[in-house]
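Wait, mind explaining this?

_____
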Amino acid sequence: MRKRSISKKPTTGDDGLLTKAGRHVKAGKFVAISKARFNAVMRAAEHSGLLGEKSKRIGGRISPALIEQAKKHTGIETDTDLIEFALANVALDDNFGSTFRKTRRTVDPDLKLGF
């Protein structure tokens, strides 16, 4: 896998408590994603067969403010890496939130609780 352009470290004071959008859970402010998270998403996308030959070109009109804010929040420096990371996040979404809400306050009847 080629080297990605992402800032080396998360914003100072980051203790890893980030939401998917990069908002710090305790402070409520946006911080850059960690290099480890970026690499994990891209490895998962590659393992899933989503990162193969790059022969498709994508184009569209996007607000420069949106691009700059997304780069600022993620620490990703290039448009290509930003688009690839965003698409990988969408493609790999496991619907955790909706599944978690559906199973809220339930326990698997086969779960051995030890009593």
About this structure: Residues 1-26 have pLDDT under 50 and may be disordered. DSSP finds four helices and no strands in the chain. Residues 35-47 form the longest helix (13 residues). The two ends are 49 Å apart (CA to CA).
